[in-house]
Amino acid sequence: MNMSQIAVLGCILSVTSLPAMETVTFPAADGLAVTADLYLAHDRGAPFIILFHQAGNSRGEYLDIAPRLNALGFNALAVDQRSGGAAKGVRNETAALARTQGKRGGYLDALPDMEAAIAWARSSGRAAGKLIIWGSSYSASLVLKLAGERPGACDAVLAFSPGEYFSGSDFIAKSARGIVVPAFITSAPGEHGDWAGIFEAIPSAAKRSFLPERGVHGSSALWSSTTGNQAYWKAVEAFLAEVPR
C-alpha cells in the first residue's frame, strides 16, 4: 500500500468512526420548535459550525458535508429553518410544524430560527470555542446579515451563493458593512454579479472569495455528486485553516 492509499484509508476510518448524529430541538423566539442535527465529534471546546440550508431544502443538505467537517476537526449543527422543504430524503421538520401552526415561511421569517440556533449552541455549552455560521442561498445572505448586525454573534461566516434576495438592492450589503470577522463567499460560476457588491461592502481584512470554473448554487456545490466539488472544498478548507481556533 502506497502513501496516498494510506492517507485515503486514514480519512475513511476517521469519518466512519465519528459519533452518530443526534437530532435536537430548541425554541425560536416565537415558541416554534426548531429541529437540527448535531454532529458532535470532538470536545466542546472545538470550533463549532452552524449550517443553514437553501430555499426548499432541509438539514439533509448537509448529510454529506457535516461528517467531512467533523473529520477536519469541527463540530457541526445542521438546522431546519421554517422556510424550506426537504433534501436528500430528509423532511424539514421546522417548516412542517410552522405550517401546522399557521406561521409564515418566507425567507426573512427564518431569521428567528437562525438566531435560536446560535443562542442554543452557546447556552447548551456545545459551542464553547469558536463559533462559525454558514449559509446557503437565501440563508447565505442572512448569515452575512447576522454577522454584520450582531457583533460577537460569530467568529467567522461562510456564504454559498448569497444575493440581494430581499427588498432593496443593497439590503444585505448594508449589513455586510458591519462584518469584521473572517468572511468567505462563493457561488456557481455565473453568480458572481449577485454578490460582488456584498463582498465589496465587507470591511474585514480577512475576507476571501472563490469563483469556480464549474459548480452549482448553494452548499450543494460541496456534495460528492457535484462536478467540481473538490475545488470548492480546497477553497473552504484553506479559509477555515485561517480562522483562529
Care to describe what's here?
The strands form two sheets. The chain has an eight-stranded mixed sheet, sandwiched between helices. A two-stranded antiparallel ribbon has the order 5-6. A hairpin with a 5-residue loop joins strand 1 (22-27) and strand 2 (33-39). The chain has helices at residues 3-16, 65-71, 93-100, 111-123, 138-149, 171-176, 192-201, 229-242; strands at 22-27, 33-39, 48-52, 75-79, 86-87, 90-91, 131-136, 156-160, 183-186, 207-210. It has 245 residues and is an alpha/beta fold. The longest helix is centred in the first third of the chain and has 14 residues, at 3-16.
Helix-strand layout with pairing:
Layout: H1 3-16, E1 22-27, E2 33-39, E3 48-52, H2 65-71, E4 75-79, E5 86-87, E6 90-91, H3 93-100, H4 111-123, E7 131-136, H5 138-149, E8 156-160, H6 171-176, E9 183-186, H7 192-201, E10 207-210, H8 229-242
Parallel strand pairs: 3-4, 3-7, 7-8, 8-9, 9-10
Antiparallel strand pairs: 1-2, 2-4, 5-6
How far from one another are the termini? 34 Å
Annotated CATH architecture: 3-Layer(aba) Sandwich
The rough form would be described as: globular
Question: What spatial order of strands do you see in the largest sheet?
Answer: 1-2-4-3-7-8-9-10
DSSP E strands, number? 10
What proportion of the residues form beta strands (DSSP E)?
15-25%
Q: How many separate domains?
A: 1
The CATH homology group name:
Alpha/Beta hydrolase fold, catalytic domain
Provide the CATH top-level class: Alpha Beta
Helix content bin: 25-40%
Largest sheet: 8 strands, mixed
CATH topology: Rossmann fold
Mean pLDDT: 93
Number of helices: 8
Unreliable residue runs: 2-16
Order of helices and strands: HEEEHEEEHHEHEHEHEH
